[in-house]
Amino acid sequence: MATTDVSAVQTSSLLASLYDFQNRFNNDARVKKLIKGWNRYLKAEGTDSGETYTCTIEDLAITRIDPGCSIEEDDENLITLQAGQDVLVRIFTGKYNPAHALIDGALAVFSGERDKVKLEAIAMIIWGL
Amino acid sequence: MKKAFELGFYVTFGAGIAFGISSFTILSELFKVASSFWLIVSIVLAGILCMLISSSIAELASMYPSAPGVRTYLKVALPPRLSLFLVYLYLIFMIMVAGIESYLFAQVVRKLAPQLPALAVVLGLLALTVIVNLLGLELPRGVQMFTTTTLILGVLILGGMGAAPAFRNLHWSSTVMANQPLSQVGGALGAAVYLFIGFEWVTMMGFSAKSYEHRIPLSMPLAILTNIVAYSIFALGLATLLPVSRITDSSIPQLPYFVQMFGPRGTYVALGLSILAIVSCFNAGVMGGSRLVHSLAREGNFPKSWGVMSLRTGAPIGGVLVLGTLAAIVSILIVEFELQEVAAVVGSAIVCCVYAAFMWAILHLRKTQPNARRTFRSPLPVWLHWVLIVLMPLSGLWALIAEPGKRLEMVATAVGLIVISAVGVEFSIRYSKNEAEMRLQAKAT
Q1: pLDDT grade, residue B61 (50/70/90)?
Q2: Under an 8 A CB cutoff, do B298 and A121 touch?
Q3: What is the mean pLDDT of residues A79-107?
Q4: In a 3-state reduction of DSSP, which class is residue B260?
Q5: Are strands A52-58 and A40-46 parallel, antiparallel or unpaired?
Q6: Nearest residue to A88 via CA among A17, A2, A22, A3
Q7: ipTM greater than 0.90, yes or no?
Q8: Helical H runs in B34-140?
Q9: Distance (Å, rounded) from C-alpha B195 to C-alpha B283?
Q10: DSSP B235-252
Q11: Which chain A residue has its CA at the smallest distance from B309's CA?
């Protein structure tokens, strides 16, 4: 299990961006329509900072954001996003299209093909990217 | 157990995507320029070259895991115009393969139902594939593994049955060295690369970051090795069972081979193998091609409508429709002018150049980003990279001119595609500039 320094969590820009993302995600009716029956764990891993958070998506909302990740790496419901901390923050605040980040080689996504597209669609809906 | 399944999936995916119906067409083409011995040498050499290239691709994949391979690797290392130009050529290759595969499938089907027009079968198959992809249906991993394993085992066993007499009478003859072997291998090498194209697609399929450390780098040479054995044995079987003229006269030499082996029922065997090849190669090709169109559209290189996706299924609707339409146009041209062999060899020459660009990308990135994360490093020495950078495009060019009867068609087609790609790049650059300007204007107002 990855561990995260709690003092860093308090001030993390990544955590702040994830809360911002959670807020937009949970309050968008179109996103809810898109993710019907889609319960996943979204792990955001900063490759340079080592910070890791796991967002739990269940019942049409992000219900929790936890530091670290207790989910098995080969769990089919786990979606892992790996990038530099700055890139992750830009992605979760809508300043960097995740599809572009993937093509630019700035972001790595480990999940089923459909989950990748679903994430891209979510970004499209929330930020119109 | 899970690790073995994962590796097995990667190997079968890489081997299956490279093993299409057009692989048999390329075998027929190779018999036109090389004797059976040198043809097998060419297949083995092409496979070894691809294995060497795969180690560099594995290094790129470890730097950019899960990225849309060809676009990312070229984008990060080459100037924008050149990288886009090569990506467009690669995309055209994929569209041509869709056209070739569907036409060859139609040829097999028409042996059983000659009353069916070839074009109807081709367009029907394309329409079916487009619908499957529009609905966002994907082949489960287990099914993908099963179809590819069945296909390759089938080819191995049936090829082995035909080649058995040759195995029993193996002996060295000095006549093998006659008739300019270097010229034979040179002419066949570039086209033989076609037999392995697609092995690199596995780099987009990694289950986790750790997959890029050992399993994906290992899976590519294993997939290539599997195909080297299957193609070589089948080629030997062809040479043993059929006169060369019957092999070279047909784009689907597997059909007379199976008919020779099983009588009229052999047509059903050919159809069975063709269906397996369609499942493992053609569908994955259309899916991958449409995703590439989608990515390029989302990047701003193509019109926005080409990047439309279904919010319900996640299917890249725009990409699928564009790829399906272009593949249908190419299919019509192939059916009308019997261009399947020309398209396959030109496609192979294109990919030889793209592979050389991958090798160059590795050297460039080692220089410009020496400290970037690399969980796998290619063990190839730098001089070998340079050898491959020179050798691969040369092999591709040689393949274009190896067959005197089709030299003009091959060169003209290659030049035509180069022009189309160059025009496409210009369009994309202007289009994306206009888009950016329009966005700025919209913001300002």
Answers
A1: very high
A2: no
A3: 91
A4: helix
A5: antiparallel
A6: A17
A7: no
A8: 36-63, 69-77, 80-112, 118-134
A9: 17
A10: HHHHHHHS-HHHHHT-S-
A11: A121
